[in-house]
């Protein structure tokens, strides 16, 4: 990078160092948790690879199959980067608040945009890279790779993720030119969400459960076919070459080629972005061109019942309006719908003979439902307080207390989660045709888990807010988000243990009406208490921290 | 009425406001003046409940902002120096939100009246993200005044307003005080403070350097017939002030000086 560009990067690095110095504990906890996850992933991959290598049936083709698996894994992540970079690129390359200042400095525009491209790369590719690197470390330790393997594998992966950043950013630049004025972000978000949902549904359409139905011979034939798959001269194959050569201590000629293409494409992107900014940026900022209608508009019909709730209702109405108009928020609902669809298709595709097996599978699904809702809650419930952003001053200076604010946020976030929890609980019970005892447990688990994750999300989101986040997806990327996930998974595990009782009773004697027995009632009461403890505890903690939050302190 | 008693605010080891006493009575416009970093914004934020005092207390119409925040805030309207308004709401939706938040009985009617008064009615159904800075500033005033608060706190009211809107805002603050309400404003525009304020409080280095009507301030500063700007400069004179960065070298015929003359900012955003 040029001297001026390097200076800008150094400036960013210094700002980050200051942020770490101000709250070292927060960053230490975050880094420790990330390190723990990375270590766990590497250890798991190490064990898995050693097991595969030792397995006699597939030992001969294990290496090729493993390589295709790694290539498929990074290809999925490459696609994920390509889709997510669409909206990120619009923010970093066009609407970033520091762009006018940087462009006013005596620095060539191209260098400024190289920095912005680098920011886009960091924002889009760091998380996938953090997911990939522990996998490659685990692969290296399992194969006793020489030390040179590790930097080679890291360079291959980091270079590989630069390519979707370039492709996605170019698509974003194109959208800036062709999308309707003032609607570029909406169009880009819709495109990326539809593509991401399509990818998830497409992967699901492969129906991996079919593998379980294969005989050992058919499975070996499948593996042989998979191992001999030729992806052609794609960047993923180059990265695979570099990684596999590195495992045996050799340097692949594909590595410098991949690095060169990556570096060259990012540099070219900087140049194209600088040009495109000058000719097209206005379209992202332009307002609507429709004629104005100044006539007074009364409140919408759906606002009126909420208005009776006073301040809390006002917050809910405001949040609903912002949800409908902010693509970074409503797109989360599309992801939710895609997830629910995949879950239901997966459940429907399970063909199980015998009531007892169906009930056993139903029990597993009850456990899975809690984990699924925990994952959805981190995107839907955790960010709702942080999304107040700079508008928080309205609430902090208005006559509305922390209880009412958190109550409003809870009421706003719960309906979609409750609908999802009850709906999936009912749907999986119907699709699997489980016993009445388990069907009721499934629906109750869905409802209780929805309440718990909403309480956890709103409460911990208020306790550890990120009012500076530019969109909902950024908010959980914090120690508070990790705490939420840890507690939500703990809750789901506890609920699963509690509901194991009706499941076990059903498996032993399906005719017993579990919920009418004293033990069944105690189990139900414990499940409700477990839910209330998590939701109520988190909300009380969040209320306490929210009431003491000082706006403008930072 | 605003009563600030022995207000102290620390940011870690930094002392932003040090034992400030301040009183603004009904029917009065009080201007809070001070150089950058004097503690004005911190004082304002403590009055509006955005910050918790380290020591001392703030009463709004007799209600402690920390102990009885809802009662205090129900009587308070606030115009911040850099108001953020939800960009994806229209002006009418924002005022409806404020009206419900503050339990204003005829909120829609009042909102329409304020939109007309500030010439925002033609764009009232447009998203706020399409508004200019001045339009947003006017809308913030409309939001603050919608509930006819007993106390109006205004941080830098004239920023971004055109001359007509600036005059309108000045008349509006005066009128609000004349209806028996209290107005506290901070500003760097000395002419606005001089024309509008019944009393002036000068903050310097986190403390009250002077307080009173113009005549009292002149006496305090020993300033004869000087205007408020001259009095202000005299009261906030820095013994340690050096020449401006360009001063010394300009006199020598050289370029920018290496000497740093800017006093250290002791307050964030202040």
Overall description:
The complex is a heterodimer of chains A (554) and B (270). Chain A is mainly alpha-helical. Helices cover 77% and strands 0% of the residues of chain A. Chain A contains 20 helices and no strands. Chain A has helices spanning 3-22, 24-54, 62-95, 99-104, 109-142, 149-178, 184-205, 216-227, 235-247, 254-280, 282-285, 303-307, 311-325, 327-348, 355-380, 392-397, 402-432, 436-463, 479-508, 518-548. The longest helix of chain A has 34 residues, at 62-95. Chain A is globular. By secondary structure, chain B is of the alpha/beta class. Helices cover 35% and strands 22% of the residues of chain B. Chain B has helices at residues 40-48, 69-74, 91-101, 107-117, 133-145, 163-178, 190-196, 214-221, 228-235, 247-251, and strands spanning 2-11, 14-24, 29-33, 55-60, 63-64, 76-79, 151-155, 182-186, 199-204, 207-212. In chain B, the strands form two sheets. Chain B has a six-stranded mixed β-sheet, sandwiched between helices. In chain B, strand 9 (199-204) and strand 10 (207-212) form a beta hairpin. In chain B, helix 8 crosses helix 9. Chain B is globular and about 55 Å long. Mean pLDDT of chain B is 84; it is low at 248-270. Classes of the chains: A mainly alpha (554), B alpha/beta (270). Chain A binds chain B through residues 287-288, 292-299, 307, 310-311, 313-315, 317-318, 321-322, 325-326, 389-391, 393-401, 548, 550-554, and chain B through 11, 41, 45, 48-52, 69-71, 73-74, 76, 78, 80, 83-86, 88-89, 92-93, 96-98, 100-103, 108, 112, 121-127, 129-130, 268-269.
């Amino acid at each position: 990078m040029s001297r001026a560009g390097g200076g800008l990067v150094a400036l960013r690095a210094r700002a980050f160092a200051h942020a770490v110095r101000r709250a070292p504990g927060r960053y230490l906890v975050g880094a420790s948790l990330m390190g723990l996850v990375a270590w766990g992933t590497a250890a798991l991959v190490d064990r898995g690879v050693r097991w595969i290598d030792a397995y006699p049936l597939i030992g001969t083709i294990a290496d090729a199959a493993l390589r295709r698996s790694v290539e498929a894994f990074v290809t999925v992540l490459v696609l994920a980067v390509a889709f997510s970079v669409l909206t990120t690129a619009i923010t970093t390359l066009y609407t970033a608040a520091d762009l006018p200042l940087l462009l006013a400095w005596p620095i060539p525009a191209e260098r400024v945009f190289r920095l912005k491209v680098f920011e886009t790369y960091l924002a889009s590719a760091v998380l996938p890279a953090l997911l990939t690197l522990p996998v490659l470390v685990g692969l290296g330790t399992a194969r006793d790779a020489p030390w040179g393997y590790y930097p080679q594998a890291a360079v291959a992966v980091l270079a590989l993720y630069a390519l979707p950043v370039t492709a996605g950013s170019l698509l974003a630049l194109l959208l800036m030119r062709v999308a309707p004025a003032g609607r570029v972000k909406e169009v880009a978000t819709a495109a990326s969400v539809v593509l991401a949902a399509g990818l998830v549904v497409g992967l699901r359409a492969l129906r991996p459960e079919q593998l379980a139905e294969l005989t050992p011979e058919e499975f070996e034939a499948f593996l042989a076919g998979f191992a001999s798959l030729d992806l052609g001269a794609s960047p993923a194959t180059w990265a695979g070459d570099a990684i596999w050569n590195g495992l045996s201590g050799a340097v692949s000629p594909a590595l410098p080629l991949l690095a060169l293409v990556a570096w060259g494409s990012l540099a070219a992107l900087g140049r194209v972005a600088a040009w495109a900014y000058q000719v097209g940026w206005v379209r992202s900022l332009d307002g609507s061109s429709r004629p104005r209608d100044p006539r007074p508009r009364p409140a919408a019909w759906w606002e009126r019942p909420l208005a009776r709730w006073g301040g809390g209702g006002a917050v809910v109405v405001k949040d609903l309006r912002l949800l409908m108009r902010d693509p970074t928020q409503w797109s989360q609902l599309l992801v939710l719908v895609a997830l629910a669809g995949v879950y239901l298709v997966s459940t429907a595709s399970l063909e199980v003979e015998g009531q007892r097996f169906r009930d056993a599978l139903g029990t597993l699904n009850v456990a899975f439902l809690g984990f699924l809702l925990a994952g959805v809650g981190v995107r839907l419930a955790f960010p709702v307080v942080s999304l107040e952003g700079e508008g928080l001053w309205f609430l902090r200076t208005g006559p509305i207390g922390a209880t009412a604010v958190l109550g409003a946020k809870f009421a706003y976030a719960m309906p979609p989660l409750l609908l999802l929890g009850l709906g999936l609980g009912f749907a999986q019970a119907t699709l699997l045709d489980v016993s009445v005892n388990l069907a009721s447990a499934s629906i109750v688990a869905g409802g209780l888990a929805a309440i718990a994750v909403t309480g956890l999300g709103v409460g911990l989101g208020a306790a550890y807010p990120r009012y500076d986040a530019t969109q909902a997806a950024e908010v959980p990327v914090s120690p508070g988000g990790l705490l939420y996930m840890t507690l939500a998974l703990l809750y789901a595990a506890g609920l699963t243990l509690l509901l194991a009782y009706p499941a076990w009773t059903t498996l032993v004697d399906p005719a017993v009406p579990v919920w009418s027995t004293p033990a069944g009632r105690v189990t139900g009461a414990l499940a409700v208490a477990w839910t209330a403890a998590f939701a109520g505890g988190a909300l009380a903690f969040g209320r306490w921290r929210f009431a003491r939050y000082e706006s403008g302190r930072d | 009425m605003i009563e600030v008693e022995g207000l102290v605010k620390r940011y870690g080891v930094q002392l932003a406001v040090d034992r400030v006493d301040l009183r603004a009575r009904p029917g009065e416009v009080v201007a809070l003046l001070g150089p950058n970093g004097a503690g004005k914004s911190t004082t304002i934020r403590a009055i509006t409940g955005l910050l918790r005092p380290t020591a001392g207390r703030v009463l709004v119409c007799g209600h402690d902002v920390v102990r009885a925040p809802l009662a205090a805030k129900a009587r308070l309207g606030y115009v911040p120096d850099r108001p953020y308004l939800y960009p994806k709401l229209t002006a009418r939706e924002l005022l409806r939100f404020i009206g419900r938040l503050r339990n204003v009985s005829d909120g829609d009617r009042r909102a329409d009246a304020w939109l007309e008064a500030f010439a925002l009615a033609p764009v009232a159904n447009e998203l706020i993200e399409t508004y200019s800075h001045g339009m947003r500033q006017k809308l913030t005033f409309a939001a603050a005044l919608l509930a006819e608060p007993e106390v109006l706190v205004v941080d830098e009211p004239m920023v971004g307003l055109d001359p007509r809107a600036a005059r309108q805002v000045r008349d509006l603050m005066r009128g609000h005080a004349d209806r028996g309400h209290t107005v506290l404003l901070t500003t760097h525009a000395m002419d606005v403070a001089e024309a509008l304020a019944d009393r002036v409080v000068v903050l310097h280095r986190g403390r009250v350097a002077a307080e009173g009507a113009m005549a009292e301030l002149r006496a305090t500063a020993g300033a004869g017939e000087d205007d408020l700007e001259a009095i202000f400069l005299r009261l906030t004179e820095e013994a340690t002030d050096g020449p401006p960065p360009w001063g010394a070298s300009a006199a020598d015929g050289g370029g920018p000086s290496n000497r740093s003359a800017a006093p250290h900012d002791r307050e964030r955003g202040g």
